[in-house]
Design a protein that fits this description.
Elements: H1 11-19, H2 27-37, E1 42-45, H3 52-63, E2 76-79, H4 83-96, E3 105-108, H5 114-120, E4 127-130, H6 132-141, E5 151-154, H7 157-162, H8 166-175, E6 180-185, H9 190-199, E7 204-207, H10 214-217, E8 218-224, H11 230-240, E9 245-249, H12 253-265, E10 270-273, H13 279-290, E11 296-299, E12 312-317, H14 324-331, E13 341-347, H15 352-362, E14 366-368
Parallel strand pairs: 1-6, 1-7, 2-4, 2-5, 3-4, 5-6, 8-13, 8-14, 9-11, 9-12, 10-11, 12-13
Length: 382
């Protein structure tokens, strides 16, 4: 079968991709785009950082037609598990549409007054991106017009199910019956396969174990230390590394707060995001991190969903990821946009078996670091 090429896309999409610095399609894009353009349902599994967002947006935008009238009717609905990721997807959609006029992208998520959102959405849009609960709210209110919706995209399906959105996803599928469905997941689990079997019609199944360049872009390291030494080890790791943007994963929000406070006390530019924060505060902190006003961000797994920043060159797993899915999502926060990244995971002696399992399941090799903890003086803010 002839491989799908980037120059087979409409000229406006091709030019937009070039403006984004994308000169060739990734493996997931080469497989998904032609299948979607042929009208097939798709079940695609690929690690984060392999280009899944463009893989489903490109066929949607290839089919999207300019609507000259004032009120637009949506042609696609994209479900995302978190506000941050939904916002990220909407940003990518707008970049891909930068060479075209008359096609709108709307963002519908919680954390915004529903009535105000209904008023602002009165003229509708062509591409609608949102969180499951809020999209279902609009469907129930009939403020989201469905008669011309052709595509339903379910992104990060594994995370969607873990977060308890199964009923909302099924409700959206039922409300948009007859749509072509593209379902994407970073991991291929029993739960995602079950959902796919329930909602997809004779789908094309695409599984990318890893982007061929992923192993070359991301270097994995680990260190074994006592729980009582972890803060000192973290200071040493940061002292050694000059990465422009650093993301530190913690398993609990109080750990995020404690580590962030500690790092600020010794002069680092640092803040934290977790799921219990006010959405507006979380968005403000994420914007500051993206704009380089904050160098270091501590985060829980859920809160960090959707971080797509090329300058995140270092990810530190302060706490051991709870499962393979979490580990895959975490390491996918670096090595993006063809940049190189480093992931350093901290394990206690009791957690060393988890390290072996993670390496076996992912097929990635991690190099051990022997960290000699030194006492560092207070630094100037960085």
């Amino acid at each position: 079968m002839t491989e799908f090429r980037i120059d087979q896309l409409r000229s406006e999409t091709y030019e937009a991709l070039k403006k984004m610095g994308i000169g060739e399609l990734s493996e997931i894009q080469k497989s998904c785009i032609p299948a979607a353009l042929e009208g097939r349902d798709v079940y695609a599994c690929a690690p984060t950082g392999t280009g899944k967002t463009a893989a489903y947006l490109i066929p949607v935008l290839e089919h999207a037609q300019q609507q000259m009238k004032t009120k637009h009717k949506p042609c696609a609905v994209i479900l995302s598990p978190t506000r941050e990721l939904a916002s990220q997807i909407a940003d990518v959609s707008r970049k891909l549409l930068s060479t075209r006029e008359g096609i709108r992208t709307a963002l519908l998520t919680g954390g915004t007054d529903m009535n105000r959102q209904v008023r602002s959405f009165r003229n509708s849009a062509d591409i609608v991106v949102g969180t499951p609960a809020r999209i279902c709210d609009h469907l129930r209110r009939h403020t989201l017009k469905t008669d011309e919706i052709r595509y339903l995209i379910i992104d990060e399906a594994d995370e969607m199910l873990t977060m308890g959105f199964y009923e909302d996803v099924r409700n959206a599928v039922n409300a948009l019956s007859g749509c072509q469905i593209l379902m994407f997941s970073a991991t291929d689990t029993e739960q995602t396969r079950k959902l796919a079997s329930e909602i997809l019609r004779d789908p094309v199944e695409i599984r990318i174990s890893s982007d061929p360049l992923l192993k070359h872009r991301i270097r994995l390291y680990h260190c074994i230390c006592k729980e009582s030494d972890k803060q000192a080890v973290l200071k040493e790791l940061l002292y050694r590394n000059e990465a422009p943007q650093i993301l530190i994963f913690c398993s609990m929000r109080n750990t995020c707060d404690r580590i962030s406070s500690m790092l600020r006390s010794i002069g680092y530019s640092c803040d934290t995001v977790h799921s219990e924060m006010d959405p507006n505060v979380r968005r403000r902190i994420m914007r500051s991190f993206k704009d380089h006003r904050i160098r270091i961000l501590t985060a829980t797994d859920v809160a960090a969903r959707g971080i797509d920043i090329a300058d995140v060159r270092l990810v530190i797993n302060y706490d051991c990821p709870q499962d393979i899915r979490s580990f895959v999502h975490r390491i996918g926060r670096t090595g993006r946009s063809n940049t190189e990244g480093i992931v350093i995971s901290m394990f206690t002696e009791k957690e060393s078996a988890e390290l072996t399992l993670l390496q076996k399941e992912t097929g990635l090799t991690s190099e051990k670091l022997n960290i000699r903890v030194r006492k560092h003086n207070r630094r100037q803010p960085v």
